[in-house]
Design brief:
InterPro entries (chain B): AAA+_ATPase, ABC_transporter-like_ATP-bd, ABC_transpr_FbpC, ABC_transpr_MalK/UgpC-like, Mo/tungstate-bd_C_term_dom, NA-bd_OB-fold, OB_MalK-like, P-loop_NTPase
Protein name (chain B): ATP-binding cassette domain-containing protein
Helix content of chain B: 10-25%
Family (chain B): Belongs to the ABC transporter superfamily.
Strand order of the largest sheet of chain A: 1-2
Distance between the termini of chain A: 32 Å
CATH architecture of the largest domain in chain B: 3-Layer(aba) Sandwich
CATH superfamily of chain A: MetI-like
CATH topology of the largest domain in chain B: Rossmann fold
Number of helices of chain A: 12
Largest sheet of chain A: 2 strands, antiparallel
Radius of gyration of chain A: 24 Å
Distance between the termini of chain B: 43 Å
Shape of chain B: globular
Structural class of chain A: mainly alpha
Oligomer: heterodimer
Shape of chain A: flat
Organism (chain B): Pseudooceanicola pacificus
GO molecular function (chain B): ABC-type ferric iron transporter activity; ATP binding; ATP hydrolysis activity
Number of helices of chain B: 9
Strand order of the largest sheet of chain B: 6-7-8-3-9-10
């Protein structure tokens, strides 16, 4: 069949293009603009080329933040994905308790980031917080404002509390889509619990789990609000994630050029890792098929 | 292999069943003889699958007992019962190869590798999938997947019974015939007790030694295909088996005559006084059109189905079917029907009444 060519069709795409330019392309270009120029205020700009990028790449501070960021994402993925699956497997499949669990599980997802941070900030305080005070009084040395390890434990536990539900809900949706006949056939075939998981449940959940992992990776890699509210990036720089560092640089020190260069690299890293994730996972999927 | 005894068995999906209507499976006593091939025939929703799932242990009955030989297995888990079951829709393990799928039930029981390989090859030959053993099960067509399911059901030799829950629904018609023949062959060869659930009478009649007809949660007749055809014990059996089904005509019985609207039909046997809803049942095969003999009918329509003609007619306000030979000439003045007295059955409240000669 011959393809119909009609250039008027472009008009139909125009609204979307306008929308996307204003919401994404133009703001991004502003950042690009800052990243290659230097300014001393008064709207006077001087061409700087790739200088800011070179400077940022040479800076240890950014590499340290990147290292912490990767470590953080790795830890929470390693906890939230298996835990989410485990929770989903143990949720009641139907009836009142199923709905009850679903509502209960959704609650943390409905709380604004800022509030989650505040809740844990207070919860963990040694003087008035239930968690901090209890730990302190049973003799465990816990102080997230001074101890690096305690600070990390706090923000990791907080993220697990906040987001495991998302993984669990997605996994649950995957589990619900498995027809009863599969479980019945597995019983007839005398498959063990582990084999039922490995050969029936996991393959059927693979699709949604991929989405869950991708979402959790992107979100955790961009995390800002909660650790900022709880630890403010401290003690020292111990919990300064990439976006906390970025905000410090851009708004705290007003180094717009380096911050813009930083942003662009940050954006590219997320894009790259997400792409790698997606490609590897869809390939895995295809190879299994 | 085992003889399976159902003792006072009944099942309801409700927690506290009250009346009999609450039971999906009404009280039932039956013995499935060791090594026989049974078909469980009935319309959708009549309790066939419920009964099957109770036998395989996927469902716990509300009351009664199930015995395998002399062992009570009512509360035994599926695994202990050593049953194979094939479901209506294909169940395959997508991420495994066809070979691993077929080997799965054997490996789960810790069978030796050589034995597994040998059995898998035998079964693959039987279902015609030798070429595909090494590919993944995902992405196969529905009938290929169902063949794998069938293969998994047949791979174990020592099963107590083989249960099939409408296994050929998704299979192409020509393949259906072939697989059914193979199942039958398998039965003749190994003599497993087989229970085959279906709503397709052809399937039931060709597969089984004995057909169990279910209607509304109740077993209405157990018999050979011939018995079901000649003497349906319940009007449902008459109507469900046969194409078209048995004609059921409201009548009044006096001795060996059935009165329909004042006219009468001769019966081969005499009957006493009957209570309730009284009807006579005649298969279309035993009704004959003629110009002179019998009672008046209005012919509505004649359908030529190839090997015979089906005459749809109105008989004193009841729709009846008459089967005429392909070469029989049917003329406009053939407006009378006669029934073969030996094949007229009498029913009271849907159950057949035996006459006295």
């Amino acid at each position: 069949m011959e393809k119909t060519v009609n250039h008027k069709a472009w008009f139909l795409v125009l609204p979307v293009m306008v929308l996307v330019s204003f919401s994404a392309v133009i703001p991004l270009m502003t950042v690009v603009n800052y990243s290659v120029q230097d300014t001393f205020g008064n709207n006077q700009f001087f061409w700087a080329g790739l200088e800011w990028f070179q400077e940022m790449l040479a800076e240890e501070r950014m590499w340290n933040a990147l290292g912490r960021q990767i470590l953080f994402s790795a830890i929470i993925l390693a906890i939230e994905v298996p835990l989410g699956i485990f929770v989903a497997l143990n949720m009641p499949k139907s009836g009142f308790w199923s709905s009850f669990c679903l509502v209960l599980m959704s609650l943390p997802l409905l709380i604004p980031w800022n509030v989650v941070g505040t809740i844990w900030q207070i919860f963990g305080r040694v003087d008035i917080g239930l968690l901090g005070y209890t730990l302190e009084s049973i003799g465990i040395d816990y102080n997230y404002t001074q101890d690096t390890f305690a600070a990390w434990v706090t923000i990791v536990v907080m993220d697990v509390w906040h987001w495991t539900s998302l993984v669990a809900l997605l996994a649950f949706a995957g589990l619900k889509s498995i027809p009863d006949a599969y479980y019945q056939a597995a019983k007839i075939d005398q498959a063990s619990r582990w084999k039922v998981f490995r050969y029936i449940e996991l393959p059927k959940m693979a699709g949604v789990l991929m989405i869950a992992i991708l979402l959790r990776f992107m979100d955790s890699f961009m995390i800002y609000t909660e650790p900022f509210v709880v630890t403010g990036g401290g003690p020292g720089n111990a919990t300064t994630m990439l976006s906390i560092d970025l905000v410090k640089m851009a708004l705290g020190q007003f180094d717009l050029g380096p911050a813009a260069a930083f942003s662009i690299m940050y954006f590219l890293v997320i894009l790259l890792i997400s792409w790698v994730f997606y490609t590897v996972m869809t390939n895995l999927d295809r190879r299994e098929g | 292999m085992a003889r399976i005894t159902l003792d006072n068995l009944a099942h309801s999906y409700m927690a506290k069943p009250g009346s009999e209507d609450d039971y999906a499976l009404k009280e039932l006593n039956h013995v499935w003889e060791d090594g026989a091939a049974y078909a469980l025939l009935g319309a959708s929703g009549c309790g066939k699958s419920t009964l099957l799932n109770i036998i395989s242990g996927l469902l716990q009955p509300s009351q009664g007992r199930i015995l395998f030989d002399d062992r009570d297995v009512t509360h035994a888990a599926t695994a202990e019962r050593n049953i194979a079951q094939v479901f209506q829709f294909p169940v395959v393990y997508d991420t495994m190869t066809v070979r691993d799928n077929l080997a799965f039930p054997l490996r789960n029981r810790g069978a030796k590798a050589e034995y597994v390989a040998q059995r898998v090859n035998e079964i693959a030959r039987m279902i015609g999938m030798e070429e595909m053993l090494n590919r993944k099960a995902r992405g196969l067509t529905a009938d290929a997947k169902q063949k794998i399911s069938l293969g998994r059901g047949m791979v174990r030799e020592d099963v107590s019974a083989l249960l099939f829950d409408e296994p050929l629904t998704v299979i192409d018609p020509h393949m259906k015939w072939e697989l059914r023949t193979q199942l039958k062959g398998l039965h003749n060869q190994f003599g497993h007790t087989m229970i085959y659930v279906t709503h397709d009478q052809t399937e039931a009649l060709t597969f089984a030694d004995k057909v169990v007809v279910m209607h509304d949660g109740r077993v209405v007749q157990i018999g050979t295909p011939e018995e079901l055809f000649e003497t349906p014990e319940h009007t449902f059996v008459g109507y469900f088996i046969g194409s078209p089904g048995m004609n059921v005509i409201p009548a009044r019985i006096e001795g060996n005559r059935a009165y329909v609207n004042g006219a009468f039909v001769e019966l081969a046997q005499g009957y006493g006084a009957l209570e309730g809803k009284v009807e006579i049942g005649v298969r279309p095969e035993y009704a004959r059109l003629s110009q002179t003999e019998g009672l008046p009918v209005n012919i509505r329509r004649i359908e030529d189905v190839g090997r015979h003609k089906i005459v749809r007619a109105d008989f004193f306000g009841t729709d009846i079917n008459i089967i005429a030979g392909e070469d029989d000439r049917i003329s406009a003045d053939m407006n009378r029907v006669s029934f073969d007295a030996a094949h007229v059955n009498v029913y009271a409240d849907d159950w057949r009444v035996k006459g006295a000669a």
